[in-house]
Amino acid sequence: MKVWQVIVAGVVVHLILFYSIFDIYFTSPLVHGMTPYTSRSVPPAKRLVLFVADGLRADKFFELDEGGRPRAPYLRKVIEEQGAWGVSHTRVPTESRPGHVALIAGFYEDVSAVAKGWKENPVEFDSVFNESRNTWSWGSPDILPMFAKGATGDHVTINCYPAHFEDFAGSDMTQLDLWVFKAVKRFFESAEKNATLMNALQKDKLVFFLHLLGIDTNGHSNKPHSEEYVMNIKVVDAGVQKVVQMLDNFFNEDGKTAYVMTSDHGMTNWGSHGAGHPSETLTPLVAWGAGVRQSLPTDGSCGQFPDNFCNDWRLQHLKRVDVSQADVAPLMSFLVGVPFPVNSVGVLPVNYLGGSDFEKAEGLFANAGQILAQYQVKMTQVQERTISVSFRPFPDLSASAQVDLMRNIRNLINNGRYSDAINESKFVIDTALKGLRYYQTYDRFFLGISVTLGFLGWMGYVLHLIVADHTIVGPSTLQGKSLGAQGGIPVMYHVFATIGVLVALLLYVQSLPWTYYLYCLTPVLLWMKFAQGWNTIYAALKGVIKEAYVMPMALSTLFCFLGLEITVMSFFYRELLSVGLVGMAFWAISTPLWNTHRTTCLCWMTSCLLMAVFPLLPVVGGSTNYPVVLLSGVLSFLLGIYMIWRLWDQNGSIDTVSKTLLCIQVAVIAIATIIVKVTSDRIAVKTASPFFTQALSWIILCVSPLLPLLTDISVDVRLLSLGLAFMAPYILTSITYEGLFLLSLVCVLYSWLQMETHLEHLDSRQARVVSFRSSRLELDKKGIEQTPRHLHIGDLRRVFFFIFLITTAFFGTGNIASINSFDPASVYCFLTVFNPFVMGAIMMTKVLLPFLVVTCMLRAVQVVTRIPLRALMLLVMLMSDVMGLNFFFLVRDYGSWLEIGTSISHYVICMSMIIFVMVLMGLSQLLTSGSVRRKA
Predict the structure, then answer these.
(1) Using CA atoms, how far apart are residues 821 and 105, in angstroms rounded to an integer?
(2) What is its EC number (predicted)?
């Protein structure tokens, strides 16, 4: 296989292994064909008002301020005198879309569906809005269209403000919420003059939805501890009070309006959300009005909760009822008398209801029927596509048991035993939800085995390629001991072909998705290729034993394996990156260079120890520190000037074009630093950055990475140009010490190249004439051999250094939480108006830039040390897959949602890194060897 074939094969296999996680853990929970269920009791409310304060944390809402006064005085009075309250627990990812889907549709949207669409439904699902007679909604254009486009008919009306209102640099974010409250007021005023609208408003099953984005926007821009965030809570509280008074007056205080106030997610202290920290998953829930119970006093404990929130919030005297976020949907459905959303997995929180036990029993009975209907459809789907003899039904809820349980609950209600009926309904719901999860994960073990075999088969095949083509044992084995020479290949092909046909037939008769064919047939192909080269690997093992290489090979492999395990653990504890960097620093002492090139070794040690500081610092995003960003820009500018001067001084043959471009690139860094200064000053006074600086930022982002293609392709010139090219856009996206981190990373990589250069016994003059273009050393008549060499033990260390540095480049400034939820301040140099796709693309570029720096340096190390490029890539893939297999086994679907989400995120990130590295190695080939100049 050629180099490009290795890249393509590696990307394809890893894409299959990567995508498998979505079929194993992220399959859509939605099923269709269920009959809607509605409570038989008379609905207590004719209309319901849902307030969603986007990004509102539970603690910031419930706790008192420094003066002992409530931040939301009206809603605090509601809690204490006329309503029910508690904490709504969200799930990861804590983003606006899945949060609103859980609140209004009652189910937790899978991650793959979230990726398919942000502002509208990628799949059809039912919701409270869809089941209502009419829904009127006001708020953000990012949320409201999602439910309007998913509704049947045109009974969901949306009123959105323009998208450019969502400006993170705006001086007053509360205007977003004030716009909503004013729009609601205008709506009811217009009804006085519109007979058609007035007639519609007198009917039942009405929903009014107010999406309030100001708190979320203030949290992103000013952080949840800011005065602006707290003041926005007061604005929302005052607006809610006015809406309640307005509706009471409009409907003549008929007592038929129910109110629910909650949030879609919380927010971290550094103004982000998306992960599973309690500050993101704990949101407030307050309900009052028709059908909701009055406030209930307690003995001072507020309920049986392991936390101390009630005392912290001075609410220990009132009963607290916590719910899962999806439980809000059936609560709203029951209050307003519409069918429960057919895809809902929420459980009606009867402790929020103020009606009779009969009404509660009827409500939970309908809730049980609705969830049981989903279970029946899901069970039928799995049974129909499974071979009858192998079908394993959920043991706790057979078809006969379903009928008996529902009949028993109906009898209990008819006999007036409402408390027993409520408990029995809860049991049915709990069992049906377990059954849904059972069938949702029915194929998980089978798919897990297939993916594991795929990993092992690919690793075995890669090992075969390495041994056969890049070790001294390969050619002799292929000549004398090939499997084909023994006549074994036909038999082997027949065996694996038979296995493949049997697997395909089993998948076909079960009507399984086409992706299952990829997961199951890929291992068959890979294991066949591994078996084909088994003689080569066996001969290599015998050769190692014969030549007494067992101990050196075993020690090197052991150290690499331990290093990879430390790298795996660094995903959980990023401080371990510092441990690894310290170990790498003292590696220099064990090399011959400690005696011959002490200065180079000390530079390597100093740079490694300096970079070891960054994983010990708080993750980026906790706060902005623009003076540090400016410092990184100034240091980068000065270091760039020094390196250019040193290059000119040592290598007088640099052409004029390269000299000019290097000077321009240093100037671009200075311009980027000035842009950061201007932007930070404007943001400080809550105004957007000038259009000119934003346009200049985009030009730098797009043009700067291309400038190296105009420079000379000698290693020293091209690497310096690449470092300068990546530093400028990285500074533009920095908000604290990231710029210093990249600068330190570049120093480590430069020192690494110097170490490898001296280990190859090249002097400074020889190193300067190494060219990227030919992948060989272009020396004078004293030059060394230019033919590719076989792999040796030192290459294992080089590949491990690369993988460790790639991981450090990823997690050196953050962790899983900071990767999942970024600070919008990182994109202020480019835009301030909310645009998730553009912001995400910029942040992805920021993440990939350090990757590209490390990969380009690996390319330089490969050229200097003459490692065959193909062998290098195969070793990178082999070691990376050891990590990938680790994370696959560490994926869990039990425990807290933070633990579940983190384990899955680790696997996704690791596989993404492997795929990106393979692609970036191809890109680094272009950036280092490519040139648009006619003369290299």
Answers:
(1) 24
(2) 2.-.-.-
Angstrom distance (rounded) from CA 403 to CA 415: 18
**Degrees (nearest 5) of the Cα angle 6, 7, 11?**
115
Q: CA–CA separation, 409 vs 41, rounded Å?
A: 15
pLDDT for 779: 39
Give the whole-angstrom CA distance, residue 42 versus residue 783: 94
pLDDT (mean) for 302-308: 83
Residue found under tokens 């300067």: 768
Residue where the block lists tokens 């000038």: 690
DSSP secondary structure code for residue 193 in this structure: T
- Expressed as residue numbers, the domain containing 395 is 367-440
Mean pLDDT rounded to a whole number for the chain? 88
Within 10 angstroms of residue 509's Cβ, the number of other Cβ atoms is 11
318 and 382 share one domain: no
Say whether both 142 and 271 belong to one domain: yes
337, 373: one domain: no
pLDDT of 482 reads: 43
Six-digit token pair at 516? Answer: 């299952």
What is the C-alpha R_g of the chain? Answer: 32
The separation between the first and the last C-alpha atoms of the chain, rounded to the nearest angstrom, is 29
Residue 488 shares a structural domain with residue 381:
no
Shared-domain flag, residues 702 and 612? yes
Tally Cβ neighbours within 10 Å of residue 765: 12
- The amino acid at residue 426 is K
Distance CA 345, CA 91 (A): 13
Question: Rounded to two decimals, what is the model's pTM?
Answer: 0.83
At 40, list the tokens.
């038989």
Q: Which residue has the higher pLDDT, 450 or 273?
A: 450
Residue 583 corresponds to which amino acid?
G
What is the rounded distance in angstroms from the CA atom of residue 265 to the CA atom of residue 352? 21
Residues 638 and 661 in one domain: yes
The residue among 225, 294, 170 whose CA lies nearest residue 57 is 225
Residue-wise pLDDT tens digits, 172-203: 889 999 999 999 999 999 999 999 999 999 99
Q: How many separate domains does the chain show?
A: 4
pLDDT tens readout for residues 319-348: 999 999 999 999 999 999 999 999 999 999
CA dist list (Å): 395 to 387, 391, 399? 18, 12, 10
Are 322 and 424 members of one domain?
Answer: no
Residue matched to tokens 């730098």 = 700
Cβ atoms < 10 Å from Cβ of 742 = 25
Identify the residue with better confidence: 426 or 546: 426
Q: For residue 359, name the pLDDT band (cuts at 50, 70, 90).
A: very high
CATH number, residue 140: 3.40.720.10
Among candidate residues 324, 355, 386, the one where a domain is terminated: 355
- Whose structure tokens read 């040390």? 865
What does DSSP say about strands 282-289 and 257-262: parallel, antiparallel, or unpaired? antiparallel
Using alpha carbons, select from 154, 168, 167, 156 the residue that is nearest to residue 105: 156
Residue 396 lies in a domain: yes
Give me the half-sphere count of Cα atoms (radius 13 Å) on the Cβ side of residue 622: 9
Cα–Cα distance, 216 to 274 (Å, whole number): 13
